[in-house]
Amino acid sequence: MTTDQSAPSTANGTATAAATGANATQRFASDKQVEAQTPPERVSLLAGEVLSAIHDTIARHEVTYDEYNALKAWLIKVGEDGEWPLFLDVWVEHAVEEVAGKAREGSKGTIEGPFYVPGAPTFEVEGTLPMRDDEQGTPLLFQGQVTSVDGTPLAGAVVDIWHADSDGYYSQFAPDIQEWNLRGVVTADEEGRFHVHTMRPAPYQIPTDGSCGALIRAAGWHPWRPAHLHLKVSAEGHQTVTTQLYFPGDAHNDDDVASAVKPELMMDPQDVDGGVQVTYDFALAKSGS
Fold first, then answer.
1. Residue 149: Cβ within 10 Å count
2. So what's the pLDDT on residue 7?
3. d(CA 268, CA 248)
4. Residue 45 located in a structural domain
């Protein structure tokens, strides 16, 4: 594998891996809890097994020094490009999420990905996500109900939603898009019901002009994610579900580069006058269950 040492730019309003990676890295540093309080014995166990797996791969496939040095150069470039959040969220997070959610009752979760931003504008029960006056795409009404797993409606449940635009770009991670474009937080009514007006997102490629793109090209993989909505659904006394919802018929539902699609997360969009309507309900497990 070879790496392109040129530095991507943001000329002409184009989103680049370098700019996207820098934003994702900055967001992770400011928004995430990174103190795991893991005892040394477990750190030794996990780090030792990861290193052992690497050693086994090297021995089994007789990795050469040229291949080793190419890997070393690529790892250095991932850091320089700020693409560790992208790399880990695309190729590793889905395995962590499976472990985290395997015993939880209720709605299925999936990966958060690198593009979540807390603090989006808030709405009561029904709201229209911030968007540009000429926002492109098909109008989408996304609605549903949040209940506990026993069916009890969860009054005041919070639905935090964000997604890409019709070009596959996320606000705050691409230039020339207003800060909170297609991001919002809706509080459900007494019956746990909510309604969100937005625009249908498009499938997109993860940034390919940086280190992750170099890996994709070297391995002969593809960079595509199917169109999806991101959500965090929460309610007092219940476990938060972080998930993504998908549209039937997308060409990459079966080979998502991030391995995040699950059958339970497929929506059932219905055509309505001038747009599309989706109803999707959430069931949350109680905290501690």
1. 16
2. 30
3. 7
4. yes
The percent of residues above 90 in pLDDT, for the chain, comes to 83
pLDDT at 282 over 80: yes
pLDDT tens-digit map of 85-131: 999 999 999 999 999 999 999 999 999 999 999 999 999 999 999 99
Dihedral of alpha carbons 68, 70, 74, 80, sign: positive
Structure tokens at 62: 């007789």
243 close to 107: Cβ distance less than 8 angstroms: yes
User: At CB < 8 A and 24+ separation, what contacts does 258-262 make?
Assistant: 258/89, 258/90, 258/91, 258/93, 258/94, 258/111, 258/113, 258/206, 258/225, 259/91, 259/94, 260/94, 260/97, 260/110, 260/111, 260/113, 260/225, 260/228, 261/110, 261/226, 262/108, 262/110
pLDDT number for residue 2: 38
Q: Residue 132 falls within a domain, yes or no? A: yes
Q: Per DSSP, what are the bridge partners of residue 275?
A: 272
Q: What's the DSSP call for residue 286? A: B
Domain count, the chain: 1
Q: How far is residue 247's CA from residue 136's CA, in Å, rounded to a whole number?
A: 18
SS3 180: coil
Nearest to 118 by CA among 9, 32, 178: 32
- Residues of the domain holding 119: 13-289
Instruction: Please tell me the distance from the alpha carbon of residue 244 to that of residue 144, in angstroms, as a whole number.
Output: 15
Residue 74 maps to a domain: yes
